Amino acid sequence: MGDLTTDLLCFGNPLLDMILRVEDGQLLTKYRLLPDNQIEADDDQKALFDEVFARSGEVTFCPGGCAQNTARIYRWILGDRSSVSFVGAVGADKFGQRLEKLVRADGVNTRYVVHEDRPTGRAVSLVWGTNRSLVADLGAATLCRPDRVFSPHNLALLTGAQFVYIEGFFVTHDPETAVQVARYCSHSGRRLVFSLSGTYVCERHTSTICQLLPHVSFLFGHVTELTALARALGLEDEFDISPLGYARLLDAASTRLNTVEAMTQSDEPDQPADQALLNGDSPGQLRIIVTQSADPVLLLDDVSVVSVPVPAIDERQIVDTTGAGDAVVGGFLAGQFLGESLEDSVRYGVLAAREVVQALGCSIPARRHPLTEPPLTNGVAS
């Protein structure tokens, strides 16, 4: 896999997930954690990451972060038929070294921005019986500024990519980088893919999403996230999954964008590393892919809604739903790379998610994707 060529380029928050099964509540008590909760670590709780890392023989280490998960699933499906690269920020520490080793082992070319003064983003899941206590520290992952991201090597990757994917969490800390990438995609004919990632992203970063949408070819979101975006734009309480609802959402986003541009207009534009990043034309019609957990995935545009069923799965087979949405995106993009129809590409995503939920963390399945031909073993056709 050449360093200066890639078919899919992903931007997101790289995390090292550490999953530890515990027999009692000792660690939870020590670090003031609840048995079934998700929090961001305070200063006193950050020692937990080193303590868990030191118990490496008992810990399941897994790459985390939406876009990084998507990149790994995409590579699992396609193997050596395609290449994928990931851009995100890490620290110069043992966590970053372990993370890079794991991600590269999955066939993804890492283009990490390394910060000497920040730790790599980490998340610990303490599994106690049926409960899971998650504590995270994003660390360096929140520092992907344009002056570090748009290096000559990364610009070469951006120039050659067929698809560019940005996770929603990325825009919460580096909106300028995301918008510049989006404009470049329009300018150069790259297809931009964006995932809403979480309801709070839609509620607190609505204006940035509206800046991105004119450049996006495929928008992924759970129905709850699209509802949050619709509400943030002053629309109905529930997102209307219909061509009319599609039109209303885009009209409201366009109105918000016009307001933002009028308020922020300046005589001196930003100066990124490549002048082409400043401008861009519309990429064509936006398609919205709506996930609904176990209900059908819906493919929505201005004229139709296509429903793709989610195959039933025995609840006893479901181990962990972490990364299911990321797998849908990765599977869809693999299908598009292979020249499949939009509907069949969604089916690739649905079946990828079905495999992922049967393992702990967003782990790469041991068996091949059900629709992959010829069979692949460790990314190599057999």
Write the layout of secondary structure elements.
Blueprint: E1 8-11, E2 15-21, H1 26-30, E3 37-40, H2 47-54, E4 60-64, H3 66-78, E5 84-91, H4 94-105, E6 109-115, E7 121-128, E8 131-137, H5 146-149, H6 152-160, E9 163-167, H7 175-188, E10 191-195, H8 199-204, H9 206-212, E11 216-222, H10 223-232, H11 243-264, E12 287-292, E13 295-300, E14 305-308, H12 324-337, H13 342-356, E15 376-377, E16 380-381
Parallel strand pairs: 1-5, 1-9, 2-7, 3-8, 5-6, 9-10, 10-11, 11-12
Antiparallel strand pairs: 2-4, 7-8, 12-13, 13-14, 15-16
Written account of the structure:
The protein is of the alpha/beta class and 382 residues long. The protein contains 13 helices and 16 strands. Strands 6-5-1-9-10-11-12-13-14 form a nine-stranded mixed beta sheet, with helices on both faces. A five-stranded mixed beta sheet has the order 3-8-7-2-4. Strands 15-16 form a two-stranded antiparallel sheet. The C terminus is likely disordered.
